[in-house]
Amino acid sequence: MVRTASVSRVRHRSVGETRRRRSALGLLLVGALLLSGCAGSRIALERKAAAQADRGNDGAMIQQLRLPAESDASVNGLVNYNPYAPKQLTRSWIYEPLMIQNGSTCEITPWLATGYRWDANNLTFTIRQGVKWSDGQDLTPADVAFTLNLMKKYPAIDKAGIWNETYGAPATEVTVAGNDVTIHFSGPAATKFPGMVLNNAVVILPEHVYGKAGDPATFVDKTPVGTGPFTVGSYNGRRLELERNPTYWQADKVKVQKLVLEGTYDAQQAASKLAAGELDAYFGEIPNPEKTFVEKDPANNHFWYGAAGSTVLTMNLMQKPFDDVKFRQAVSLAMDKQQMSLKATYGIMAPASQSGLRLPVVKDMLPAQYAAADGAQTVLPYDPGQGNQILDAAGYAKGADGFRTNTDGSPLAVNFSVQAGYIDYQATADVVVAGLKALGLNASVTQSSPDAVDQQKKSGEFQILFEYLAGGCDFVRGLGSKIDTTQIPKPDTVLSNVERFSDPAVDKTLSDLGVVTNDGQRKALVGKLVDVMMTQYPVTPLIYAPARIVYSTRNAVGWPNAEDPYAFADSDRLIVLTHLSGS
Amino acid sequence: MKYFVRKIGFFLLTLWAVVTLNFLIPRLQPGDPAEKLLRNLAGKNAQIDPSQIQALRTMLGVPDGSLISQYWQYLGSLVRGNFGVSYTYYPFSVIEVISKALPWTLVLVTIVYVISFVVGVVLGAFAAWKRNTRFDSVVTIGSTFVGTLNPFWIALILLSVFAYGLGWFPSDGGYSEATPGFTWSFAYDVISHAALPAVTLLIVTPIGWILGMRNTMVLNLGDDYIRLAKAKGLPNRTVALKYAARNALLPSITGFAIALGSVLGGAILVENAFDYPGLGRLMGEAVENKDYPLLQALMLLTTVATLTANLIADLLYGVLDPRARKVDA
Lengths: 583, 329
Prior knowledge:
The complex is a heterodimer.
Chain A: H1 2-32, H2 44-55, E1 65-67, E2 99-101, E3 108-110, E4 113-119, E5 122-127, H3 141-153, E6 171-177, E7 180-185, H4 192-196, H5 207-210, E8 230-235, E9 239-244, E10 258-262, H6 267-275, E11 281-282, H7 289-292, E12 301-315, H8 325-333, H9 337-345, H10 384-394, E13 413-419, H11 423-438, E14 442-448, H12 450-459, E15 464-470, H13 476-482, H14 504-513, H15 519-536, E16 540-552, E17 556-557, H16 573-577, E18 581-582
Parallel strand pairs in A: 1-10, 13-14, 13-15
Antiparallel strand pairs in A: 2-3, 4-5, 5-7, 6-7, 8-9, 9-10, 11-16, 12-15, 12-16, 17-18
Helix pairs in contact in A: 8-10, 9-11, 14-15
Chain B: H1 2-28, H2 33-42, H3 50-60, H4 67-79, H5 94-129, H6 134-147, H7 151-165, H8 184-204, H9 206-221, H10 224-231, H11 236-274, H12 279-288, H13 292-320, H14 322-328
Helix pairs in contact in B: 1-13, 2-3, 5-6, 5-8, 5-9, 5-11, 5-13, 6-9, 7-8, 7-11, 8-11, 9-11, 10-11, 11-12, 11-13, 12-13, 13-14
């Protein structure tokens, strides 16, 4: 009896791998069709649509737009629209934020607030007038103050960390004056703002509903009252149909009559649904979309994998020989990024700049010495010869077995931990190891479960691994957090500074950056961070990591793409919606 | 009486062991529920904001305190029937979540279970009766071969041929267009979605019964009462069905209970492959998200179901076959 039970338990444990295994098989099938692909195919129609959108979207209506479900929950029929729950049926279309900073161009679009200003440590939002809740009541500044105060009372919904110490001083109170809502902070808190305008971290709730709801974290919101472009039409436990909100405050920009959200698809399912016209856009990964999707109908099928950040090689700076900047420089020169791009992304994602910035999108932030040719020189060339020279000069002599030793002559073996099942990481890892071997290093790869790798990040018991470097619009939370002493992981929390870089001068730069609101000063400080990346090699950016959209223009046009990267399709859905129109 | 007391005592001891393992195993694995949940929501290429982790930890109330005190709390709430709140489906309780998923698995497993029992027993009996014929070798060797296949692998093959290739069946979910209710269109929708998962399980699950039934019946066929029946000139049909098969069925009935575990195990893999909205898929999700409360309740449910089925089989066996009681006593 016990035996039967334990056998089934062992099987349960392998289930976590099964979805990944399935996508691995999908990739194999796709791989069989592989030819090299090149990014993007666009058509004039789209450009026209984008131009229209800039004028205020006077395009044709779209009867029905079909997107994947926003909740990946496998259980059907649990209805909750509470925007602060970990999962809700839709997170984009009912409740709205004050402002939206899109991840692509970093432009800040006013939403429920028409503007914001800093005045010492006080952040003031001017609330838009004429916005109505879907039950007909007016949105008032009191609703905004209510929502912000709710976060104070219930820290569980304070996703932007307004009332606590993360990234700046905590808020002390919220005041309302006319249409202005002001958050008073107890100290410099400039970095709180980018956190509030990103990823729907702060969305405004109706006081007349949530005021009576008690704890907003446990409240099950079955009949949402929002300000958003859609209201709930029907939900059959699986398929959510949203209807256009005719009283929406910018209804003239919304051309989608009905929005259908259904299904969580893997790459293979998504590709076939897109091709069959059963889906208009997909935001997950489809390997080699040029071959598997675009070629089937080049006029209508498109994709855009924009650079959202980069995959960075992360060496443990607490260990020899990675604490030696010469060693890190040599390794950085031995990374064949072109090859990684081909092997891991079919050549779609370009080699990343050592500066840690997303180039050429934010090239304006590069300091003068790196700015030539949009920072082309910051993308380090593949030059193992020079890497070898650096290692020779630094005293990493070759031992009897032909491998390099430490400078004190002790044997040196480099082990690389890669997340099993992350196919692109695994492909990149092979190229990394080839590069390390080209330097004469005794290098190997260990595949571990992503959980185990996360554990290594927390404990610091690793030599080399891959990390993600956010290309975010805010340089304290993005690039800065990678080299910030306070962002070194704790035993129970993964933080960004996995390599454990620590330099008081950098910390000073970052705390200055958290205070300045002047663009010139900001650029000078970011320039210092770039200089650290270029000379200290805290991490080595390899290839850009994508924010994806794979879409069809048969039904709707105006999607963001490489030529008009006005927003990231997945994270900035509200912005994208106002650009869409019928084809 | 002693026999029953002992069986029930053993049941309770195993139950305690299962409950304790349920508590320990999820906690021995690395990973933090709040981080996992955010990671799964954001995708692997996303920086997780420390303030979001902090908020989510506050929300979920991820347990702290020593393992021992957590264990006592856990036992206490189990006794009160309180399984807590799911992390993945916060703020819904584990009971609510499971009650939504349970019917799907129950229907799938029951149908598969009954069909495979009938098919397995009939095929096994027939193979034994026609032993050493071509039919027997095909069935025996074929089922031994198929038995080694992983249901997950079979699921992938069926998916790529019948769902992606030919497009005869939907590839994922329990239903799609129709609104749930007792209507023909909904029933059709459900059946077309359940067809591939059921077929996958039906390829694997009858194997045990085929081989078990065949072997017991081959033994029985060598017994004297069969020879007597044949000597009496009874028709072959009667000898095969009423004499041999009937007696060979007894061990299969206890096997019916024991096989529950393996059918549930297979259902977990298959539901994950087809994104079928049942308990198996839910369990996969709970593992992925480190959803301890949900995982514990699910593992408890499946193991208790298996254990109870076994207990009932044991007790029934005691009733059906007095020798079992005597030998033990």
